[in-house]
Amino acid sequence: MSEHYQSQGSTGLILYGIPKSRTYRCIWAAEEAGLPYTVEPVSYGAESKTPAFRAINPNGKIPAMRDGALVLFESLAITLHIARRAGPPLMPEGDDAARVLQWTLWVATEVEHHIIRWAANTFYRPPAERVPEEAAAASATVLTALSVLEGHLAGRDWVVGDGFSIADLNIASVLYPSYAQGFGLGSLSVTEAWLRRCLARPAAVRTLALREG
């Protein structure tokens, strides 16, 4: 069983999972929001398949969240909920709220599957099961998608509006695990500078210390 993590004064928000998983996205969001939270350790495999946990997430996967009467699964849905609770600037208002959803869905559909495919064929799978051609193809697909972000970030510091928002967190949190393992951004210097700004935020530093600890 993994270690139990709790923010100072934690009372309400419960995150189910472990930091070395997509749960870290939710922890980062809670840290940015300044909301008290507890991480109830549930690991991959048997722990997430029990009847008790399936009552929380019938998919039998981590993370999941309980916030009072509200129970959610899917990490990006959880981060969006946390940001909505926090309000601006983490969750912008008006048209920018729609732009947050746009970029969150973009990273989930255009980037995440392919960067996981790169990771699987670079460091997740045992060496004998890795296919270098798959890694190369996945990398090319990710870089093509990220060229859209590169163009969007030209002349701006953050993805939506004038400040860091949950859109930045959601995209950065998809990229980080592979970036930390050597995924190269090539000529996408604007994107890399933006990613480094995201990861240097105090809430990110605290979260990554848990994830990598």
TrEMBL record:
Taxonomic path: Bacteria, Pseudomonadati, Pseudomonadota, Alphaproteobacteria, Acetobacterales
PANTHER family the UniProt entry points to: GLUTATHIONE S-TRANSFERASE GSTA, GLUTATHIONE S-TRANSFERASE-RELATED
This protein's record includes keyword Repeat: no
Molecular function terms, GO-annotated: transferase activity
Domain of life: Bacteria
Domain GST C-terminal span(s) in chain numbering: 93-213
Domain GST N-terminal: 10-90
Keywords per UniProt: Transferase
Protein known as: Glutathione S-transferase family protein
Pfam families, per database record: GST_C, GST_N
Family affiliation: Belongs to the GST superfamily.
